[in-house]
Structure formats: C-alpha cells, structure tokens
Amino acid sequence: MQDTENPRKIAVLGTGIIGAPIARNLQKAGYQVSVWNRTIAKAEGLKADGITVHSDPAAAVEGADFVLTVLKDGNAVLEALQSAEAKLKAEAILVQISTVGLKEIARIQDWAAERKIALVDAPILGSKAPAENAQLVVLAAAEESLHDAVTPVFEAIAKKTLWVGDQPGGASALKVVVNSFIGALTHGVAEAAKLAAALNLPLQQLQEAISGGPLDSPFVSSKLGAIVNDDFGTTFSIDNALKDAGLVEEAAQQSGAWLPVAEASQERYRAASQSGLGSQDMIASYLAEQLSPASGI
C-alpha cells in the first residue's frame, strides 16, 4: 500500500488498450499517476479517475519515481524517452512494458546505461480484460537491487510476476517465445473453425467438443467464442499481432531456430491485415483469405 499523504509518482507513457487500465489500477493502488499519449484525446478519459494527462512526455515524467512505457514498439519507446529525458529524475526507475523484441530492448538498455538510468525489462502477458482487472502476468528482468522497489508496482497491475533474470533482455526474450505460442494457438483456433465451416459443421459443435475438455483454456474459449458469436471487438489487434510475429521471426533469425509454424502465423496475420482487418481482434485471422503472389505477400 502507498503512503496516502506522500504517494509515489508514476508516469505512464502510452494509454492504449493496455496502458489506460494500467494507469487506472496504479491510481487505485494509491500512486500519483500522470500520463502521456501520442493521441492526447485517447487519454482524456483518464482525468475522471484523478489522473493527470499531459501533452508531452517530459511534463508527464517530471518528478516521477517510476516511468512505465506501454507503447507500440521500440522506436516509439525511444522517441518518448528522448523527448522526456530532460525531466527524468536521476533516481527514477524505467519500467519498460512494451513488447519490443530482442534488438530493440538492447537499444533501450544501451540508452538507459549511457544515462545511468535504472531499467527494468517487464513485458506483460494479457490483453484488455486482464489489464482492466489487474490480472496481467509480468515477465521481469532487472538487477536484484531493483526488485523490492518495483514489486509493489507490479502487484498493483498483475496477479503474478515472474523474475527471469538479473539483466534486462531476458524478459523480452521470454515474451517473444510466448508470443510464438500465442500465434500458434490463435491460428489453430481460426483454422479449426474455418475447416468446420467448410465442412458445413455448426461452429457451436466445435465449441462444445472443446469446452471443458483437456484442450480447453480461457484463451481458446475466448477466441473460439468470438468466432461463434461473430464478435471481433479488439482486445489485441491484427496489426499489433503482426508486429509481434515479426519480432518472433527476428528472434528466429538471430538464434538460428527453425520456426515454420511461426512463419505461417506471420503470413496469416499479414493476409488479414492486407484484407482490411488490421484494427480488428487477432482472432479475425479467421476471416482472412489467402492472398495471391501478385499481392506482394
């Protein structure tokens, strides 16, 4: 719990589907929260929760004990940090939550090290509903001396924190591995449903066959339910999933791992995005059609 008379200040850079509920849960936990978002109109609703909204990153981070980055990619993170640098407290802890991949976390680590800024590599597992309910899973890597300081922050937004190493980079590596699994699950559900429909089987029968059995999981149930109910409201978009699939491919190339399923996953996300489905939920890959070689895919 926070000292309500002298709350610690947290800046959240990025208030999208994940960043906004993270900011709200931190405010509920007693932190003094300020935020910045590239499109400021998307952050305005946070004012009703007592959160201060700023029009630039520097104003948001001024005086902050912790700076959380919840942005689309590594370039966005570094751009925001460079804009905020002049107002960063010397003792502030940078908590990098965005999914950025191996190369970009190394760039962020170098940037922080050059400025002697403490960095916690902390990508999360979970999308809209887990973020709203403080049920995320944090994958964290940082020097052991930082663990006690950031643990209360993670407890305010997540149900579990898994420490995977004492140097930034390990958590981002594990996040990429998990994302390869998420891609396989997503397209496995989508293609099973596609085949069922092609065979004139009611999708509800597929749902009933899996529900409650050894193949079921909350993720599978949610995504298959979205297909059955024709509800592709975004919890994590096709375009973001395509970006993450690219990070899996990057890691495979860097490590020499052969990942044909991951390659196919990326192609299906790309086909969905090219079909105009980029802003819809990742399971809208079910709606994607194979594109011809002439399309440039």
Report the count of strand segments: 9
From the alpha carbons, calculate the radius of gyration and give it in angstroms.
20 Å
Shape: globular
- Main-sheet strand order equals 3-2-1-4-5-6
Calculate the mean pLDDT score and round it: 95
What letter string, H or E per element, gives the SSE order?
A: EHEEHEHEHEEHEHEHHHHH
Low-confidence stretches: 292-297
Textual characterization of the structure:
The chain is of the alpha/beta class. Helix content is 47%, strand content 14%. It has 2 domains: 158 residues, NAD(P)-binding Rossmann-like Domain (Rossmann fold), CATH 3.40.50; 115 residues, N-(1-d-carboxylethyl)-l-norvaline Dehydrogenase, domain 2 (Orthogonal Bundle), CATH 1.10.1040. Helix 3 links the parallel strand 4 and strand 5. Helix 3 packs parallel to helix 4, helix 7 crosses helix 11 and helix 10 packs antiparallel against helix 11. The C terminus is likely disordered. Keywords: NAD, Oxidoreductase. This is 3-hydroxyisobutyrate dehydrogenase. GO terms for molecular function: NAD binding; NADP binding; oxidoreductase activity. Belongs to the HIBADH-related family.
